Amino acid sequence: MKTVHNFNAGPCVLSKQAINASIEALKDFSGTGMSVIEVSHRSKEWQAVMDETESLWKELLNIPTGYKTLFLGGGASTQFMMLPFNLLEKKAAYLETGVWAKKAIKEAGFFGEVVKVASSADKNYTYIPVGYNVPKDADYFHITTNNTIYGTEIHTDMDSPVLLVADMSSDIMSRPVDVAKYGIIYGGAQKNVGPAGVTFVIIREDILGKVTRNIPTMLDYRTHIKESSMFNTPPVFPILVMNETLKWIKTEGGLQAINKKNVEKAALLYNEIDRNTMFVGTAEKTSRSIMNICFVMSDPYQNKEEAFMEFAKSRGMVGIKGHRSVGGFRASLYNACPKESVLALVGCMQEFEQMNK
Count of domains in the chain? Predict the structure, then answer.
């Protein structure tokens, strides 16, 4: 296998430890003589994986009593609809910080009034708004903590006058989180906690059952809480890889240690972007994400974009092309992205600058 430096935004790089353990489970799961994708999800061997995975979530995030962690299908996009179906009675507040927040707002609009408390659309979502007011009569306030397309991030757990819910698809498990400040935290797994195919939902149980509408069985969080995420067949292989990924995070020292490494990796690349005459960052500095670093060629070198892309590719860089809606470049530095890859990209940028002096 050739050596590459994987900066894909998702599905993304996973730890070798998780990948190798998952490969073994594909061959022979827990000594059953069957692959994990063959074994019954009602078997004691699989139940042990479900129990351990939930326990790892609780341990790593220090999830308080009264919360349940669910493992569902449908991606975060299904949660855009499922969340207001379960929580929105009259009015909900949303912070619009990018495409995914905008999509969540659209879905919530089918269930009640939606108040957009602030938006950064005026500057193509390159900053996180501040100084807005959340209506105190809202059923909940929804935020998207990290915006992969634009490279912005909410770095702290904010105080909210109403129930706070968050899409943490792309920065979950990258830092410690005060879960008690949230009613729901949800996201797709395919950034920091596994492959595509499973969605996590951390939910405080006492917030449910308050809306007057009837909720279809599969879209009712209480269905999945009651059946411990196995009302129907769960996405077994993605959950297995998630389990191994969480075990890897634990061996790395947990979220404090992971966050320290993530901050160091991001600083290396941002420092080079700010130093290098050929590149410029797109997100406002106070809003910069440590997960997704977005940048473009500086004005004198805009005609060099394709040349740099090809040069970087020749040096083993994968996945640095910016999202099609914004262009430029994006390096996603999720948990399992090694520091060596970041240093390789920095070296690539420095070499390209020297070539074009």
Answer: 2
pLDDT per residue as tens digits for the range 143-159: 999 999 999 999 999 99
* Domain match, 210 and 313 both: no
CA distances in angstroms from 193 to 65, 168, 240, listed in the order given: 22, 11, 11
Q: pTM of the predicted model, to two decimals?
A: 0.97
Catalytic residue among 139, 167, 171, 220: 167
Residues contacting residue 357 through CB under 8 Å, at least 6 positions apart: none
Active-site hit among 46, 57, 100, 248? 100
* Average pLDDT value over all residues in the chain: 97
Is residue 168 helix, strand or coil? coil
46 is catalytic: no
What are the tokens at 93?
């507040």
Looking at the fold, whether 208 and 303 belong to one and the same domain comes out as: no
- Catalytic one among 68, 191, 265, 321? 191
Asked if residues 184 and 172 have their Cβ atoms less than 8 Å apart, the reply is no
Written as one string, the DSSP assignment of 311-326 is HHHHTTEES-BPPTTT
Query: Domain check: are 230 and 325 in the same one?
Result: no
Identify whether residues 183 and 312 lie together within a single domain.
no
Cα–Cα distance for residue pair 35/38, rounded to 1 Å: 5
- 298 DSSP assignment: -
**Following DSSP, what letter does each residue of 184-249 receive, concatenated?**
EEEEESTTTTS-TT-EEEEEEGGG-S--SS---GGG-HHHHHHTTT-SS---HHHHHHHHHHHHHH
Element (H, E) at 347: helix 339-355
Domain that holds residue 232: 16-251
277-294: per-residue pLDDT in tens?
999 999 999 999 999 999
pLDDT tens, position by position, 108-142 = 999 999 999 999 999 999 999 999 999 999 999 99
Q: HEC string of 28-83?
A: CCCCCCCCCCCCCCCCHHHHHHHHHHHHHHHHHHCCCCCEEEEEECCHHHHHHHHH
* CATH code for position 213: 3.40.640.10
φ/ψ region of 98 (left if φ > 0, alpha if ψ in -120 to 50, else beta) reads: left
